[in-house]
Amino acid sequence: MKKGTLNFSISHASMKRFAKVYPLSIVLIVNLFCNVALSQSVTEQFKIAASDGSSNDRFGTSVGLSGDYAIVGTDATDDNGTSSGSAYIFKRSGNTWLEQAELIASDATAADFFGENVAISGDYAIIGAVGDEHDNGPFNGTGNGSAYIFKKSGSTWSEQAKLFDSNARGFSKSVDISENHAIVGSPEGDAAYIYNQSSSIWSEQNMILPSDGGGVNANNRFGQSVAIEGNYAIIGSPDDDDLGSDSGSAYIFFWNGTNWVQQTKLTASDGGDFEFFGNAVSMAGNYAVVGGRNTGNGKVYIFERSGSTWTEQAIIEASDGGGNDHFGHSLDLSNDILIIGAHKDDRDGAFDPDSGSAYIFQRSGDTWLQLNKLIASDLDRYDEFGISVAISGNYSISGAFGDDDNGFGSGSAYIHEIGTMSCPQNYSGVNQLVGTQSTVEDYETDGAIQSSQTIDANTDYDSGTCIEFLPGFGVNPGKLFYAFIDGCGNL
């Protein structure tokens, strides 16, 4: 975002810092031809639930989103025995999301927990059944797990393949799919498996192990979370001990044309004991995102790739985070938009414990801005909105497996539409002026001047950057104003 080091930007929500702009040089502009991300319209578009939902189904345990299709896992449905599980496909039609299919494993049995993890990409969906038991292998009868691939043809979804490894444990605790590649995590065995599809046949391409992980069954929970996009995969290992007991790590692997090879190992710059960094992962383009599950109020880490090097770019926290919100337990990245779940967030404290929430962030240059906090319109205690999240294009989906619409713990999911990005109008209603420079003094709340600098739109900021600042005197003192750099270099 910013090319220099001026610290005058402010968080509208926290108001911890403010900047004084001299009235003769206030420069504010909204350029209708620029699409800039500071203010964002996010609207709850639709609430979905299973057409045959019932108590304790846990609809929303897992969610996925790809274009006009959503998938929602319900790992406790009883169609083929207690907790055999299922998953539901929904398709968008205008502003409505309609249930298109219920997916059930062809060999479903009780305690399979089919639907505990799901992912969708184009015409393919993958569903984990972590409790499935195989008929052979050293862990026969202990629920070593399987994953199922379904393919869409028209409006019909058909099971195409069942993936498993007889030597695996906890297989399908995490799953993801991208084009012709699928990845399945097996954290109880400290491994992950990548599959490739050719002519409708899914074959194991590589068994993935970390270079320093101690091999299978190393107790680092390598494979607890996985994501794959194109030639890159990321695998979380939240019980790794590099920076302290269970501090956690994540590994990036790259397809070199022959094999999947480890490119780097990621750890938190401020990591420590029991942070469980790597409990959740996602990736898109040149960015990887890693969350933990015991980082105080919750933290999420952004890494950027340049060539073969991955560098920590940002640490993200919720503007209003509280202890045990579980911010970062779930997350997903699509282009430059990031959604992060906080399913233990208490909307009104003791009145709505564990109602849950989710946060939308967007990248602006090297900065990730919190744009919105999502809360269900009909939130209730123990809904755990945000237990699972996904994002694709202009839509996000958040699971709330504790919702009671179809009975206690039947569950639901909420789809939000992410609207057009724009720099907001200033709060005062004063006509906005056009200019290229402004002198800004940065103040702490105690009145101490931190810096004074003249900013120049042509040299200090990249095109498309939004700025928020507070004039301290002159015209409409105390009012928030906004400016952004347009494509012509004007502020």
Structure notes:
It is a single chain. This protein has 491 residues and is mainly β. It has two domains: 17-36 and 426-484, no CATH class; 41-418, 7 Propeller (Methylamine Dehydrogenase, Chain H), CATH 2.130.10. The chain has strands at residues 17-21, 39-48, 62-66, 69-74, 86-93, 96-103, 114-121, 124-129, 146-153, 156-163, 174-178, 181-186, 191-198, 201-208, 225-229, 232-237, 249-255, 260-266, 280-284, 287-291, 300-306, 309-316, 327-334, 337-342, 357-364, 367-374, 388-392, 395-400, 412-422, 437-444, 449-456, 466-469, 481-484. It is globular, with a radius of gyration of 24 Å. The relative contact order is 0.17.
Report the mean per-residue pLDDT as an integer.
Answer: 80
Structural class: mainly beta
CATH architecture of the largest domain: 7 Propeller
Q: Kindly state the percentage of residues in helix.
A: under 10%
Gross morphology is globular
DSSP strand tally: 33
Sheet having the most strands:
4 strands, antiparallel
What is the CATH superfamily label of the largest domain? Integrin alpha, N-terminal
